[in-house]
Specification:
The protein is an alpha/beta fold and 333 residues long. The protein has three domains: 3-87, Ubiquitin-like (UB roll); 102-193, Elongation Factor Tu (Ef-tu), domain 3; 205-331, Nucleotide-binding domain of ferredoxin-NADP reductase (FNR) module (Rossmann fold, 3-Layer(aba) Sandwich), CATH 3.40.50. The protein is built from seven helices and 19 strands. The chain has helices spanning 21-27, 65-69, 173-179, 215-226, 246-250, 283-290, 306-319; strands at 3-6, 12-14, 45-50, 53-55, 72-74, 78-80, 84-87, 102-113, 118-125, 136-140, 148-151, 161-167, 186-193, 205-211, 232-238, 260-266, 279-280, 298-304, 327-331. The strands form four sheets. Strands 11-10-13-8-9-12 form a six-stranded antiparallel sheet. Strands 17-16-15-14-18-19 form a six-stranded parallel sheet, sandwiched between helices. A five-stranded mixed sheet has the order 2-1-7-3-5. A hairpin with a 7-residue loop joins strand 10 and strand 11. Helix 6 (283-290) packs parallel to helix 7. It starts with a strand and ends with a strand. The relative contact order is 0.12. The structure holds flavin-adenine dinucleotide (FAD) and FE2/S2 (inorganic) cluster.
Length: 333
């Protein structure tokens, strides 16, 4: 197996067949900075100083023109073909996964429609499902060369249940491959990944903000948090009333209506949604007018599409002065 050496450090790790440089580093327990695992965010950038690597995704959005000129690569998109010597900022301002990810076989044990375009998929592995609330897994689906990232909506368990809430993206390859799976089908599941997990050592009240398909990891965090005594404010932003499915999940949690509250908002309000009684507007505007007191008294967890995350980060960090260490987010590229 190729050995990857980080120049200027004593760090060396092996790369198993098919693993990206990022996966090999994380499996070895090294806190290589990363976020999305799919070539979109650019956080895992590095440089190869010696050796050969196969690149999975040509022109990934996570590399700028400047990065390409400087011959930078993405660790989540490179597979070592020989021993490598690399230059990378390991352990510097990056999220690290406290549970090393592993690749397992997972069997589809059930699926149910949540809305007209969101489905809850349940997979089971022979091994216990070990992950922190808010993390995601990479699913390798039939007929696809690249895995897709999906966040778990449940919490860790010994039975090996991994539950996802996934939006059916029109003409999306992963969406199509998932919809075609029949109960009992086996896929490869690799995880856990992600740094936006629930901090249990922080006593602050929790705020979860989810937009659209960003529901799953916020549900995982809410489910774990509801089992404690901490107060939880859950905000879910959907497009129309037909998409608003967050409240139904949160209403099932212990403490709902007392220390757990949910505010659901729709951004498109027309005559078809005349019966809608919840909030209207974009979810960051709803949080701005609804959440009481100084925002730096809260711990924030946020997930959803990149424009929604950008708007929420602007509200929290720029307008309301929340320290970035109190904001944990996943952009769903
Ligand atoms: C950390 C994270 C967590 C996510 N969690 C959820 C979730 O819980 N629920 C949910 O509905 N969605 C989630 N997503 C979004 C999901 O991964 C897919 O982007 C989305 O479902 C559309 O995929 P698709 O294959 O159907 O569409 P497509 O249009 O076929 O693919 C779109 C996405 O796939 C990825 N992609 C495209 N080409 C490549 C390639 N060559 N190599 C690698 N990746 C590629 C890119 O991220 C791209 O945005 C998450 C994304 C990320 C990054
Ligand atoms: S580009 Fe590699 S982790 Fe996002």
């Amino acid at each position: 197996m190729p050995i990857i050496t980080v120049s200027g450090t004593a760090l060396r790790f092996e790369s198993a067949p098919g693993d990206t440089v990022l996966q090999a580093a994380l499996r070895a327990g090294l806190p290589w900075p990363y976020e999305c695992s799919v070539g979109a965010c650019g956080t895992c950038r590095f440089t190869i100083e010696a050796g050969e690597a196969r690149v999975l995704r040509e022109n990934p959005p996570g590399l700028s023109a400047m990065d390409r000129r400087k011959n930078r690569k993405l660790a989540c998109q490179c597979v070592a073909e020989t021993d490598l010597s690399v230059s990378a900022k390991i352990g510097v301002d990056g999220a690290c996964v406290p549970i090393a990810p592993r690749r397992m076989s997972a069997v589809l044990s059930g699926a149910r429609a949540v809305t007209h375009d969101m489905t809850e998929y349940r997979f089971r592995t022979a091994q216990a499902a070990r992950f922190l609330p808010g993390q995601y897994a990479l699913l390798a689906l039939p007929g696809m060369n690249e895995a897709r990232a999906y966040s778990m909506s449940n919490v860790a368990n010994e039975q090996g249940d991994w539950i996802f809430v996934i939006r059916n993206v029109p003409n999306g390859l992963g969406s199509r491959a998932l919809a075609a799976l029949e109960a009992g089908a086996t896929i490869a599941l690799d995880g856990p990944y992600g740094g936006a997990w629930l901090r249990t050592d922080v006593p602050r009240e929790i705020v979860c903000i989810a937009g659209g398909s960003g529901l799953a990891p916020m549900l995982s965090i809410a489910r774990a948090a509801a089992a404690t005594e901490r107060r939880l404010h859950f905000y879910y932003g959907a497009r129309t009333a037909a998409d608003a499915c967050g409240r139904a999940f949160v209403a099932e949690l212990d403490g709902f209506g007392a220390r757990v509250r949910c505010v659901e908002a729709i951004s498109v309000h027309d005559h078809a949604d005349a019966a809608w009684q919840g909030e209207t507007g974009l979810i960051h505007d709803v949080v701005a007018r609804d959440l009481a007191g100084a925002f730096d008294a809260y711990e924030f967890y946020v997930s959803g599409p990149p424009p929604m995350i950008a708007a929420v980060l602007n509200l929290l960090a720029v307008e309301r002065g929340v320290p970035t260490a109190q904001i944990h987010f996943d952009r769903f590229f």
